[in-house]
Amino acid sequence: MQVLDSNDIALTGTHLIEASAGTGKTYTITTLVLRLLVEGGLPIDAICVVTFTEAATAELRDRIRTRIKCVLDGLSGRPAPEDPFLSECAVLPAGDQERYSRRLQQALSRFDEAAIYTIHGFCRRLLCDFAYESGMQFDTELVTAQDQLVQETVDDFWRRNAATLSPLLSAWLLEKKIDPDALAKLAGKVLGNPLMHIVPAAEPVDTAGPESSFAAAFQAAARLWSSHGSDVKNLLLASESLNKGTYKSASIEAWVEELGIFFSAPAPSGLPPGALEKFSVETLEKKCKKNCSAPQHPFFEVARQLWAAAEHLCASYDAHILYLKTALCAGIRSDITRRKHADNIQFFDDLLLGVHASLQGPGGPAFAQRVRDRFKAALIDEFQDTDQLQYEIFKNIFAHPGSALFFIGDPKQAIYSFRSADVFTYLTAAADAGTQQTLTTNWRSTPGLIRALELLFSRHASAFVFDQIPFVPVQPAGTARAPLMIRGTGTAPLQVRLLDCGKERNSKKGALLTPQARAAICADMAREIAVLLDGNATLDGRVVEPADIAVLVRTHSQARMVQTALRSHGIACIVQNSGNVFASPEAADMALVLAGVAAPDNARMVRSALATRLLGCTAGRLQALDADAAQWMSELERFVRFNRLWSAGGFSAMLRGVLLAYNVLPRLAGLPAGERSITNVLHLAELLQERSTRAGSGMWELQRWFTRQLSQPEEDSEANLLRLESDRRAVRIMTMFKSKGLEFEIVFCPFTWGGSKVTGAGFVYHEEHGVRALDLGSVLIEEHRLQAETEELAENLRLLYVALTRARRRCCLYWGALPGAGTSAPAWLLHNRDMAGPPVLAELEQRFFELSDADIFEEMQRLAAQAPECIEVCRVQPSGASGPLPAKELAMDLACRTFAGRIHMPWRITSFSALVSGRAHEAEVQERDSDAHVSEPLQAPAAPHQAPVVPPGAHTGTMLHAVLERFTFARTPSPELESLVAETLAAHQLDHALASAVIDMVCRSAVQPLSTPFGTFCLADTEPERRVSEMGFHLPLKHTSSRSLQELFSRRRIAHVPAAFADTLGRLVFSPVHGFLKGFIDLVFEHDGRFYLIDWKSNLLGSDQESYCRERLGAVMARDYYILQYHLYALALHAWLGCRMSGYDYEKHFGGVFYVFLRGLREDSDPDCGVFYDRPEYGFMQAMAQALIDTGEAHAS
Questions:
Q1: Using alpha carbons only, what angle is made at residue 365 by residues 360 and 370, rounded to the nearest 5 degrees?
Q2: Which 8-state DSSP code applies to residue 1087?
């Protein structure tokens, strides 16, 4: 294999480029694209780049564009980073440089046309752009999941084949867990591998004959038992010739009872109990004492015949199960295809099948030529993750004279067989390729780590099992990274930590079981990570941080185990994309909550919802509810309100109510793994809301969809993957599969010692010539199993390679005489130098069986001795006590830190609420300025019998604002208003009994006289099209402080407002503001050519009329800073009118401001009662604009 020079490789023909981990695969791809652009003269849309995930596509697009711009900047004389390709271009003649620059500029200007796709995106583009040549159906809908379609097809298959089954066979299928769900999983495996061979062929099985023989044998035995059962029992109890260890009196009594029940039925309802075998002639003779004769009775021969008939029947039933599986696999592809054509839909894999079929058909050559006319070159990234179907597509199109086809990948990193990736396809392509070249410079890891891994993978001639996948040594880059330093001293980059398992030589296993070994490793690893984070470990002079460390595991359950161990040591850690959110505990809890809300009249469902971790009712609380009928009725009524809220306001409103009512998120935050739980809850809420909105799902339909997702989640859907619970800097825990393509400073590999055994039937292996096959139970299954185990070991070795090569500075590998590790990847690499030829797992396991803890330690010491500065071996005791805890982990009194400083934020968005509540900026600015900050009323409320009907509080105020936002201001109540009020009360979880009082209150606002210097009118007199509710604005502010506001308002005196108001503004505590003031004006309207604004207030000031007179309102307006609020809102409206209204004149067009205190509006009161009015002078408005507005323009939204 040649060393690749990406600046010299031919730009035509087929090339295979092997890129080992860290050798700059993506950089090589960008270099090839540059050369195709400038040397090949190809336009950017004639170069096709294909990779296998959306994330990789986005990264490639960004890297290619950045590289083009970098080289273009350098050729144009602009500053640019160092680049070998640019250096080569710099020595070219000026004419060539100018031509290159022109081509790169064209590529950059047309980069949005760059053909960078996933494999599915590429095939979809071909089918759409060449619909005629490919024969694609028009208007075909692309669906993201076909699980439901597969299940429906399997259900039909089940109905056709199960309708005529006998009761005995049906019971056998259930016992063997053969049902539509199990068959659907098998169908998914077949559909994911469209070219896979299924063995054996489907052959129908006669079960009627064995069933008839079994029934006849049953009848004969039952008749004999009914008349002689007691004789048989007594004979066995009295026999002295039988082995009493087996034929104990108690056992005989139990067997007789079992047979009595079995033979009491008129026909067999199932297979005979195991006790029957103890009564057969063969068994009795085997269990007879030496030189003794077995008891004699005709029933014993009949029992033998019945047992033999049952065994024959079981064999025929097993053969029928095999037939069901093979028949399903043989027909599922055509059945699914027929359904898809009927519904005119496609799944992602159908895109590939469509292109492949078009290329194989009679029009294939013409189709391929049309594609080659469009794309002159193709670069296939991550080619080791392809399969035979994909390879044939690329080969048939681009392996053609005049085209360029580059396969870039690394067979040592082919780890996605569970996603149908096939390393044997890579090996086939390698044999077909014109040239094979490799990258040999590692830009990722330190020289010491590169050397350590070379020693590890060079111990065995066939490190990756198959000779076609050699280990190619790589060299460190010239600018190699410095090693990890601990207390100023370098450490060996490969740490091998051997767990003492108490295993002696030639013993089958050590003292530790698998769970104990995993726990010991987790404990030791947590301590090691704690040491690295104690402040004494450095990277390039900086202290090691949690985000520098990754722990790579095999399974999601292992990830959770590691997370628990690290958190117990106080180490911040997060699990990255470890599974499907629908498989989380929170999803199961959410399903119970939804069921309870959907059926609030079902006490059992409500109780189940309450008992979830989400709602948090303890057993004691539930017991108290059972004992207190009033409390229980209160809970049921709460669920009834949730139900109504779901019906009236939708799913999101209901869930928000539940979360608030039960304090869900704050309570979860205080529990172990609280961040994870909160993230899952919010993720599930988002998915449910999206489904509800997209599909228009009602309550029951949404609940059914959610339940279906729990049982059969869309595994391939990225939307369903668990999200990071935090973006803070923390130790990353992820699967080795997920880590591919990533790199970390420090990597721990605790669980690479899983075995490679393949059990049962239904496994995939490769036949001769690399054809993938699925063996469901052929006569050659054991021979095929050996092949499958060899392939499993090979993939485990590749997975180990991926895990170890993620590290830049240090990698820690856990090993030892661990349970089940005899057929693992490390066992093959580290202890198997003597085995020649293809591996036989039994031999590998035997070799490992012979080793003790001490033997393994000695072998690893010999390995480390070859490069002591690169590899360090350490023995770990099962207790995990490999060293003392860092001082910071010792017991201490913990306390929160107090932050007393100020964060300077010069530009930001603020609001009126933020200014007056002492916060210059809110982390999340409120969308509405509420009454939440209002202090207690100046006058105490009246006695209970005088209390207002509508209760006070910010929540009630929000409800009233919601009603007024949609109110038409009609003079009298209407059915529409009644419906609006009922819906709003339900949405805010308020008692419907308040409806009449709310209707009276809002109707009074419509007819309340509004007195101004220009006349008196009411809102009912205004036209609907001249009113705007909740008008939003962003007012650009100059540098504003509390002192500047005090100085500004000291110039104005307002009737009935305390003169000291300006001084109170100076006492506001907020950092100087510069940016935008955000707000929403409750109501803006125009009457008789003048514009007014209204702000609704629901404050309870008292129960009598005097509480809402002009003088008292003035005091409230000053106390709660409403004076400042309406001046700012009036300024925003004034500025906006000046920008949007031709000929705007403040004196002519601005009418003033009303603050309407709803509780003060009464029919028998003074017309001005409950209404505060003001119209700032034009001069003061101009002074405000000059002092506050930054640009002179308000942005209404």
A1: 120
A2: E
Q: Examine the pLDDT at 893 and tell me if it is beyond 90.
A: no
Residues 312 and 406 occupy one common structural domain: no
Domain assignment of residue 831, yes or no: yes
- Quick check: 875 and 817 in contact, CB under 8 A? no
- 83 and 198, same structural domain? no
Q: How far apart are the first and last CA of the chain?
A: 65
Beta-carbon contacts of residue 175 (< 8 Å; ≥ 6 apart) = none
The Cα–Cα gap between 425 and 411 comes to 10
Taking the C-alpha atoms of residue 807 and residue 444, their distance in angstroms, rounded to an integer, is 8
Distances in Å between the alpha carbon of 1103 and those of 499, 1108, 1163?
Answer: 77, 9, 15
Q: Which of helix, strand or coil describes residue 13?
A: strand
Q: What angle do CA 1173, 1133, 1059 make, to 5 degrees?
A: 40
CATH number of the domain to which 65 belongs = 3.40.50.300
Give all strands (DSSP E) within 1088-1194, no chain letters: 1090-1097, 1150-1157, 1171-1174
Question: What is the span of the domain harbouring residue 200?
Answer: 168-343
* Cα–Cα dist 347/518, whole Å: 40
Query: How far is 120 from 134, CA to CA, in rounded Å?
Result: 15
Residue 923 has pLDDT above 70, yes or no: no
**293-307, 563-577, 828-842, 851-865: the lowest-pLDDT one:** 828-842
Residues 499 and 526 in one domain: yes
**Which of 491-495, 1059-1063, 1146-1150 is the least confident region?**
1059-1063
Q: Residue 1178, Cβ neighbours under 10 Å: how many? A: 13
Specify whether 1098 is located in the same domain as 1154.
yes
- Residue 1190 has which token pair? 């930054």
- Residues shown for the chain: 1197
The pairing of beta strand 807-816 with beta strand 1010-1012: unpaired
What does the block give as tokens for 99? 């031509």
271 domain residue, yes or no: yes
DSSP characters for 342-353? HHTEE-HHHHHH
The conformation of residue 503, written as its DSSP 8-state character, comes to P
The CATH number of residue 1113's host domain is: 3.90.320.10
Distance CA 159, CA 1004 (A): 67
Q: What is the mean pLDDT of residues 10-37?
A: 94
Is residue 234 domain-shared with residue 318, that is, in the same domain? yes
Model pLDDT, residue 838: 65
- Specify whether the CB–CB gap between 340 and 149 falls below 8 A: yes
Q: With bands split at pLDDT 50, 70 and 90, how would you rate the model's confidence at 921? A: very low
Q: Which of 86, 108, 105, 109 is nearest to 35 (CA)?
A: 86
Express each pLDDT in 772-802 by its tens digit.
999 999 999 999 999 999 999 999 999 999 9
- In the chain, the number of structural domains is 5
Cβ-count burial 690-711 (b if 16+ within 10 Å, e if not): ebbeeeebebeebbeebeebee
- pTM summary value: 0.69
Query: What pLDDT is attached to residue 723?
Result: 59
Same domain, 197 and 83: no
Please name the residue ranges forming H helices in 165-248.
167-175, 180-191, 208-238
Q: Where are the beta strands (DSSP E) in 881-1004?
A: 908-911
C-beta of residue 544 within 8 angstroms of C-beta of residue 484: yes
> Is there a single domain that holds both residue 920 and residue 861?
no
Residues 370-403: b if buried by 16+ CB within 10 A, e if exposed: bbbeebbbbbbbbbbbbbbbbbbbbbbbbbbeeb
